[in-house]
Specification:
Belongs to the helicase family. PriA subfamily. The protein contains 20 helices and 31 strands.
């Protein structure tokens, strides 16, 4: 098969000059000449020269700039992969326009598996062809002899066996003497079978599943929200939608917030469909990603489970997207292209015209409002599946039950833990703070250890013997003497992190098997997966963890969840603080009692009457949402109003501030829009760059993007030293 034969099936659209979107922060597609021997169409993935480099770009739609074709450079190569279809290209344009990002940067997210563009990536061996070289050197002779057995060889294997350099082998490949063996790629996973193991659903599950299956059959744009308490069996319900989509011959994307830690999910999928889904996340090996990319594009892969970036895979027949834990902040990317994968999933579905399913025990305020207004279909699962009951939740008033001196665990929690361990069950202590202590200071002079690059304290990691910045990665061995006054051994750790709680727990329960789980643990994802499995298998008594343990896991023996500091996160001044805390606490306490044993959740708090604590303890989600929604509406905050933030940063503080002020002055006069700031951003210094922030607020109907574009256009000329980042729908504000 020649390289271009793929395209002769569709009508070849040969043009002299085409726009090509290159994976760069360019505002528009660049023009390239198409040589006669190449045929391209909109969506073709091509190689083009860009400055001194060669890059993979996409032939775009629309007119190319009317420039003199003689001055243009030429498309060098058309990759043998399916072109990005019109819906995918519209999606890229849409995301770019919405987030105010250069389309090239968005396209880059869709092209994140370069080698997958060409089947040569699938060369699985070399074999002797019919041609013989004109000039037969000794070395070449040995290669011919070795390869003469008709077997397929790898390049290095053949060179080694023949006792020649790999260059000799390459030379023979160039001459056509050795032929690459193109093995059709093995599918990354066998196709899932929709009828492999159908569960018997509870009546509530069956009703919800039926609605979803109908939506899938309609094959039109719709959004459904499965709003079901932890353990209600939401996964089982949306699996029915997945099965329906597979039966309809459509591909499915399941978005998960923490793909690296979802072994249990993969296993459940296997049980239901007879195979695992293909996985897509940034930690996957490049070879795996190339295959998944290509097979999503060719349609060989039917279901992908992935992190937010999987949304930009060029699926050929996508017909359903599931967004599990739709409220999770991990869906927001805050880097280069600032986008929310849940929201963009809905956009992708509306462009192509297929259903989206959101699932959560604690939906985002945005999704709840959309459901209340009838824009989304709300499917409720108010009870846990089967025998399992929700944990019995209560607060521990820390003013009345204070911990022992130097400790952080209340006697109430300690007693309950003893009882739990005595029953042979497990406890989880949750504290959303990595390391040993969030702040270290000198008892003598009061010196505080601060990051030299960020406005942040250095966090002590005692297990590693270091103090580190959680924003830029700066770190140093924990000093013995104060750098300010020189006093030895007078540094004190202030406040707890998970390591410190582990130390306390260890003293309290010397015989218990204790494990600390946080994302900075040594050993990475593999080790985390092993430890999560160990917990599920009952090899651990007390788990001490950050939000990593909050998500989705099923630990059958876990019957006690203690929240070490339920107030953490409530006091940061962010209007979303209550919502986030509610979601996090709901998620964590939801780890308890998932298999029918009586279970408890205890929240250590200094504000037991706070609405968030009340909502969690009473289980009265409805009044919490009503109150939060009313508050947002009153303040004109999302989803009732629109927000965007503009962050201006520079190494020089004055440069950043000047530019931010200039933008403020440049904002068009518009009575509907409010511009706040510039003020120092919540983290005023990050990685050596000073940051100022402008907040733009407007009504729901405002043309926020138009306003931002006008502001930037009329703003000060960009200087090299200044960086401007725009965040439409910021998650914290
Ligand atoms: P959620 O995602 O709502 O927290 P899960 O889907 O994880 O809940 O379900 C909770 C537990 O109940 C899991 O162990 C799951 O295997 C089990 N479960 C849910 N629905 C069914 C069903 N219909 N049949 C058998 N087991 C089920
Ligand atoms: Zn730092």
């Amino acid at each position: 098969m020649t390289r271009d034969s793929l395209f002769t099936a569709s009508t070849p659209h040969t043009r002299d000059v085409v726009p090509v979107l290159v994976p760069m922060p360019a505002d528009r597609a660049y023009s390239y000449v198409v040589p006669d021997e190449l045929a391209v169409e909109p969506g073709s993935v091509v190689q083009v020269p860009l400055g001194p480099r060669k890059v993979a770009g996409v032939v775009w739609h629309g007119e190319s700039d009317a420039v003199d074709a003689k001055k243009l450079r030429a498309v060098e190569h058309v990759f043998d992969c399916p072109p990005l279809d019109a819906a995918m290209r519209r999606f890229i344009d849409w995301v770019a326009a919405y987030t105010l990002s250069p389309p090239g940067l968005v396209a880059r997210m869709a092209l994140r598996a370069p080698a997958a563009f060409d089947p040569e990536a699938m060369v699985e061996g070399l074999r002797l062809g019919d041609t013989r070289p004109e000039r037969l050197t000794d070395a070449r002779g040995r290669v011919l002899e070795t390869a003469g057995d008709g077997m397929a060889w790898t390049r290095s294997g053949l060179a080694h066996a023949a006792g020649v350099s790999a260059g000799v082998v390459d030379g023979l490949v160039r001459l056509g003497v050795l032929e690459p063996l193109l093995v059709p790629p093995r599918p990354v996973v066998p196709p899932p079978e929709p009828g492999y193991a159908e569960p018997s659903l509870s009546p509530a599950q069956a009703e919800a599943a039926e609605t979803l299956v109908e939506k899938v059959r309609e094959d039109a744009f719709s959004v459904s929200l499965i709003d079901g308490v932890t353990g209600s069996g939401k996964t089982e319900v949306y699996f029915e939608a997945v099965a329906a989509a597979l039966r309809e011959g459509r591909q499915v994307l399941i978005l998960l917030p923490e793909i690296a830690l979802t072994e249990q999910f993969m296993d459940r999928f296997h049980v239901r469909f007879g195979t695992r889904p293909a996985q897509w996340h940034s930690e996957a090996a490049p070879k795996t990603r190339e295959k998944v990319w290509r097979q999503a594009a060719t349609g060989a892969v039917r279901v992908v489970a992935g992190a937010r970036s999987a949304l930009f895979l060029p699926f050929r027949e996508l017909g359903l997207v599931i967004v599990d834990e739709e409220h999770d902040p991990a869906y927001k990317q805050e880097d280069r292209v600032f986008y929310h994968a849940r929201d963009m999933a809905i956009v992708r579905a509306s462009i192509t015209g297929f259903p989206v399913v959101l699932a959560s025990a604690t939906p985002s305020i945005e999704s709840r409002v959309n459901a209340d207004r009838g824009r989304y279909t709300r499917l409720r699962l108010p009870a846990r599946f089967g025998e399992a009951a929700l944990p019995d939740l209560s607060t521990i008033d820390m003013r009345r039950h204070p911990p022992a001196r130097g400790g952080f665990l209340s006697p109430v929690l300690i007693e309950e833990t003893k009882a739990t361990l005595a029953r042979g069950e497990q406890a989880l202590y949750f504290l959303n703070r990595r390391g040993y202590a969030p702040l270290t200071l000198c008892r003598v002079c009061g010196h505080r250890f601060e990051c030299p690059n960020c406005s942040a304290w250095l966090v002590e990691h005692r297990f590693r013997g270091r103090i580190e910045c959680h924003h830029c990665g700066y770190g140093q061995p924990t000093p013995e003497a104060c750098p300010e006054c020189g006093t030895l051994d007078h540094l004190v750790a202030c406040g707890p992190g998970v390591e410190r709680i582990a130390e306390e727990t260890d003293k309290l329960f010397p015989d218990a098997r204790i494990i600390v789980l946080s994302s900075d643990m040594m050993g990475g994802t593999k080790r985390l997966q092993r430890e999560l499995a160990a917990i599920a298998d009952g090899e651990v008594d007390i788990v001490i963890g950050t939000q990593l343990v909050a998500k989705g896991h099923n630990f059958p023996m876990m019957t006690l969840v203690g929240i070490v500091d339920a107030d953490l996160g409530l006091s940061n001044g962010d209007p979303r603080a209550a919502e986030r805390t509610y979601q996090l606490l709901g998620q964590v306490t939801g780890r308890a009692g998932r298999t029918g044993r009586a279970s408890r959740g205890l929240l250590q708090t200094y504000q037991p009457t706070h609405p968030v604590m009340q909502a969690i303890v009473s289980g009265d989600a409805e009044s919490f949402y009503e109150r939060e929604i009313a508050e947002r509406e009153r303040a004109g905050l999302p989803p009732f109003g629109r927000l965007a933030s503009i962050i201006v940063s520079a190494e020089d503080r004055a440069d950043a501030e000047d530019h931010a002020r200039g933008l403020r002055r440049a904002a068009p006069a518009d009575a509907a829009m409010t511009v706040l700031g510039p003020a120092e951003a919540p983290l005023a210094l990050v990685r050596g760059r000073y940051r100022f922030r402008l907040l733009v607020q407007g009504p729901r109907t405002a043309d926020m993007q138009g306003f931002l574009r006008a502001t930037i256009a009329a703003g000060p000329k960009m200087r090299r030293t200044v960086r401007v980042q725009i965040d439409v729908d910021p998650q914290s504000f």
